[in-house]
Amino acid sequence: SITVDPAARGAAIDDTMYGVFFEDINRAADGGLYAELVQNRSFEYSTADNGSYTPLTSWTVEGAGQVVNDAGRLNERNRNYLSLGAGSSVTNAGYNTGIRVEQGKRYDFSVWARADSGTTLTVALKDAAGALATARQVAVEGGWAKYRATFTATRTSNRGRLAVAATDAAALDMVSLFPRDTYRNQQNGLRKDLAEKIAALHPGFVRFPGGCLVNTGSMEDYSAASGWQRKRSYQWKDTVGPVEERATNANFWGYNQSYGLGYYEYFRFSEDIGAMPLPVVPALVTGCGQNRAVDDEALLKRHIQDTLDLIEFANGPATSKWGKVRAEMGHPRPFRLTHLEVGNEENLPEEFFDRFKQFRAAIEARYPDITVVSNSGPDDAGTTFDTAWKLNREANVEMVDEHYYNSPNWFLQNNDRYDSYDRSGPKVFLGEYASQGNAWKNGLSEAAFMTGLERNADVVKLASYAPLLANEDYVQWRPDLVWFNNRASWNSANYEVQKLFMNNVGDRVVPSKATTTPDVSGPIAGAVGLSTWATSAAYDDVKVTAADGATLLSDDFSGDASKWTHTGAGSWSVQDGQYVQTDAAAENTMVQAGDPSWHDYDLHVQATKKSGK
Ligand code: AHR
């Protein structure tokens, strides 16, 4: 039983308490939230990004065509281009199974092209079964210029290809295809289903762009002086301005990132979903296993200046140098940046602090209203973490970012973690946490833990699950909050927990007492359910086994299927010893009651996806 004293006043809970953390990991940006459908659009993929890459990754050339890096390039920061011979063509395979197009929807093609003697490009959308839209012809004449065409898909396909054929020799770069239907119909926009899933959380803040990709790699810029370095840390100036002038980079997670989704787009998205933007900049100490402090005064000064410029980009008037860049990109009004994080999970606390204090001093001198967030390194429950916290306290840091990924049991056992945190010390930003798994029990353990965060809302000011997105065919890290491929996206149980908390942020904690701690280690499952969504599918041989291997439920559908209850708008029937979904129009769930003593169990099921999602 729970006793609540409505008159007692606990901690106030900020509206911004629960947010999201977006990092370009698991192809969360290119091939994910960034709606661009062409992979490697600027021919910049390199073996330096990933040993299996070449500048023609995801492209197939028929006839004569090669990637060139010479003085004829589009611009200094977009160094490669494709030189296509007369009568030749090039085809892009997109991400996952290909380019997804939907019948009746519009798609915007664009390309930067140069053809000194003139050429005609034929641009086609097709799959193995033929055309997916009426092909377009684009006449190209003279030096580099941008050309456009629009398609309306005549069929739906998950395996589309974009082909560009040239009658005469041409140079091509930034070959691009966007759905017209992006989130809020924005240009250079975001994939609608993913953006809507994030928006539906109603997050209080968006922490971006990482994570390990912020403070790993070289701290040099992209220039002739640095040898056009790949594997650079995430530097915001690389990511703004016209997309064709944004240098691509090797992503820490083993692929190439285009920066098409860059700082402007992060700020715009945060504003669109009513969330506080919370960028993270590198502190010149590398983390995530690289553990190196960069000793270069001039470089440190440059990064500190870049951070001041970032604040001007976000908040400065349209007449200021960086405010003007923002205004020219389409947003004259400021983005209202209030918090900024310096560094991410540095393992060298002393070296980090030396640099952090210099960043903070410069920011406070110029922008005293900005909260400069520090971090505690990874929570190794030991020396690094303790030293970092000691330094944070001594330096009177306003807010400290903590990260941890642990078992569900750890989250259940540590509900009281913040009960004993020093109320006069720095506030906590729990920037990354997750229990290890996407199962229901993981969501439950996180929900239990979040009640402890909320109870301590006077100390824990911000919290975000991590990571946010994962493309199922390019996974570096699991679990993740939302999963997707080129045609669908689906939420984890953990997402539902986050949504529940974010959509119901209270104003104030009402202190309560439970007479006993609920025993969540006992039975938690009493049924098995299998759901499909808009898919034609069949199931066979469903088996649930206990952790010790004992069979709890087994059904090969050779006999009576009446013990299964069907819910959802579609219809099912048993055919040839399989449970078959015969209506792929809607969500379908089949449920069979189990035994209330089920606890840890494994589900095995033979399933066939016949078509759809
Ligand atoms: O969220 C995945 C990674 O975990 C982040 O990049 C890093 O900060 C942490 O180690």
From TrEMBL:
Highest taxon in the source lineage: Bacteria
Keyword field: Hydrolase, Signal
Name of protein: Alpha-L-arabinofuranosidase C-terminal domain-containing protein
Organism for this UniProt entry: Streptomyces osmaniensis
Full-protein interval shown: 36 to 648 of 825
